[in-house]
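Put briefly, the fold is written as integer tokens. The lines below illustrate.
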Amino acid sequence: MTVRPVTANSAGELHALVHEAARQRVAIVDYGTAHRGVGYAPPAERIELTQHGSVLEHYVRDFTVRVAAGATLGEVQEVLAGKKQFLPLEAPGKMSIGECLMHNVYGPLRTGYGALRDQVLGLNYVDGLGRDIHVGGRTVKNVAGYDVARFMVGSLGELGLVYEVTLRTFALPEQVMQARIRLDDPRVLGPRLNGLLLTVAAPAGLSLYGDAEGWVLEARYLGASTRAWPAQLKGLEEWCRQTPQAEMMSTNAEGVPQVTRSWCANSAWRDEKALVVKVVVPPARTGEVCTELKSESGVAIAALPAQGCIWVGSGADDAVALDRAVANAAGQPHLRQWHRRPSQDNDKVAPLTPQPSDLPLLRRLKSVMDPHGLFNPGRFLPAEGAMA
């Protein structure tokens, strides 16, 4: 096995790296800090790429920021906070903007602010022929054909090496109000979820956690407490009264620094558990699936009900058993993506189930954007024909 670490901090260095990799017929791998276990195992012979960077330009009045893909989320948030702005991305501060983009990272604030795909205005990347490609820009325009900037979000780095991103920013709220609701049975969320999301009580962030004492639904409201919060909290209290086995536990106003930290704190076990898998189901089934999975011994759960996204962790070492339990609980349709599993189970547990329905289209795009199969081969597209 030959693994060569390489650091590239400019478009020119990336161009040279791609041409070198093509000549040597070796893959370029960039799995990031939190996603090394996603997808199939990397090629034994590979170049492991690392990028560094910073905020390149902050257009304060336009609520737009241009950053190097290697800049960490923590660094970018710190710069934006100085101008009372932020990115509604909830991830560890050490994670790079490029990793957030490649893996479509999001948390509870997606409920109120939309997905990362909605916040990307433009990006620059190097394709598989070493060409410098610029798509999008600082303004929102109509797009004819594929919107490549949005398409790259969640591509797991298989389509190009992104080195610069332009993002929409948002006004930093004056405070963050957190309301915690005890749910004796999270299955009540199924028929009651829309009744929360389509009313004045609709939160900017919504998450569900399962612990030894039961279930907690956390709703977050961002803004100024003197204006919207009284009406929102009154609506939330009414929702609790009308929802069986739901009880308002507490409300807590926190300072601005806490705006994107709650989700990371409550799901910190994702960095520690031996087994970690993400399951996506229809949102109305989130509570039902969480209840089924919690019956498994030693399982930790953190979920985003509005998106139907459920993170499941276990300290056991039997990925096959957990994969079977997830399949039985989630039923159809659902998607599961493994983030961590023992190497001995790699051949027994598919890293992504089911395969993308648009696999033929993705293969064609891969062949056009990365004709030599250089970039992260096999992460989500089967690696046949790679390095041709």
